Amino acid sequence: MKIIISIFIVLVLCGGVVAQITTDESIRISILTCAPGDQLYSIYGHNAIRITDRQAGTDKVYNYGTFDFNTPGFAIKFMRGKLPYILSVADYYDFLSEYEYFKRSVTEQELFLDPLQKQKIVQYLNENIRPENRAYKYDFFMDNCATRLRDIIDKNVSGFKWDTGKSSGKTFRDIIKEYQQGLPWTDFGIDLIIGSPADRKTTLSEEAFIPDYLSAAIEQARYQDPRQTSLQFRKTDILKFKMPKESNLFFLTPLFIFGILLMFEINIFFRVLRGQYDRWIPKYDTFWMVVIAMSSVLMLFMWWGTDHIPTRNNWNVLWANPLFLVWFFCRESMFKIKKALFLLLAFCLVISFVNAIPVIQFLPQYFNPVIMIISVILLLKTYRLSFITIDNANQQIAP
């Protein structure tokens, strides 16, 4: 009798599971890929996951790209890479209305999943959305709105294979530069802040930190069955807008601006060489040293004082060298020390100049070509201040 009761209980439980799995046929799971926006935080696009349950009458979007502005110490935590990002859930049409307002295209890729796989993903998200689980430590390259969805697929969908042969072989920096075109100052600034980790070649899994690349990987993934069924069931353009045309005025780019500053520095160099030493020149030199010192402090802080992986091992400190400040404030009586520092700084500047030549990069980090111009400016300035004596120049100070 006990055996019969046990069998009956098992059958009832199994029946409940079967019934639950059967109801999951009404569930559709898809990946939403949103086009880049015109704000810095949105230039790389966005991913979210949509769960449509026709039986329950719900249509939800789970979004790993949100954070709370009311977090205590928000600015400091954001700067130091310690700001927790949060999984949020919103109504699909509320989510879509934001992208429609900003005229950003949205593409939907419905995944080809069996009922059990759908159930596992829903359970995974429901567990993640709990208050104690919804926050995570964001990392631009390794843990963001796109990689979280990649990991959800990896953990809950079995029997398929990413097409690793379609990996682009690009570095992290190569990939983000595709989205920084037409934004020369943003491109320049990011090249200064991120270090050598950005110059490592990505695998297919790693390049999925960019939403468009995750979308392409999903489209190419196949189940390992005789039919080689695609992981993507169907792809639909939900919102379609034309990308705005890039309008970039060359005379407002870093290359042009620093080119002008180089011409200005050459003019100062020969004026001082001829004994013409205007009163504003020391203030101009001091301004440059302050900017270089601040750049150096920022780079070192982003390297050592934050949890951001991309900003580590930043070779830009060769030219934005903290020793510039020591050299600049060396007294004339410390000529030997100043000369030794000049030689060291000049060596660093020459290395930086050569590494910034696009076809001759030899350091493990890409340097923006503007660094060539900055290196020459600093080389001229340090030579002038180290070897063209101020005392001689001061004899003919311009009124």
What keywords describe this structure?
399 residues; alpha+beta; endopeptidase fold (from Nostoc punctiforme); 7-stranded antiparallel sheet; two-stranded antiparallel ribbon; 15 helices; 9 strands; elongated; disordered N terminus; disordered C terminus
Mind explaining what this structure looks like?
The protein is of the alpha+beta class and 399 residues long. It has 2 domains: 27-167 and 203-239, Alpha-Beta Complex (endopeptidase fold (from Nostoc punctiforme)); 250-394, no CATH class. It contains 15 helices and 9 strands. Helix 10 (254-273) runs parallel beside helix 14 and helix 13 (335-356) runs antiparallel to helix 14. It is elongated and about 85 Å long.
Task: Briefly say what this structure is.
By secondary structure, the protein is α+β, with helices and mostly antiparallel strands.
Question: How are the secondary structure elements laid out?
Answer:
Layout: H1 2-23, E1 27-34, E2 46-53, E3 58-66, H2 74-79, E4 84-91, H3 92-101, E5 106-111, H4 115-128, E6 135-137, H5 145-156, E7 160-161, H6 172-177, H7 184-193, H8 204-207, H9 211-220, E8 222-223, E9 232-239, H10 254-273, H11 280-304, H12 323-328, H13 335-356, H14 370-387, H15 390-394
Antiparallel strand pairs: 1-2, 1-5, 2-3, 3-4, 4-6, 5-9, 7-8
Uncertain regions: pLDDT < 50 for 5+ in a row? Answer: 1-23, 390-399
Mean pLDDT level: 86
Taking Cα atoms only, what radius of gyration do you get, to the nearest Å? 29 Å
Briefly note the CATH topology name of the largest domain: endopeptidase fold (from Nostoc punctiforme)
Helix content: 40-55%
Sequence of strands across the biggest β-sheet: 6-4-3-2-1-5-9
Number of domains: 2
At the first level of CATH, the class of the largest domain is Alpha Beta
Task: Give the total of beta strands.
Answer: 9
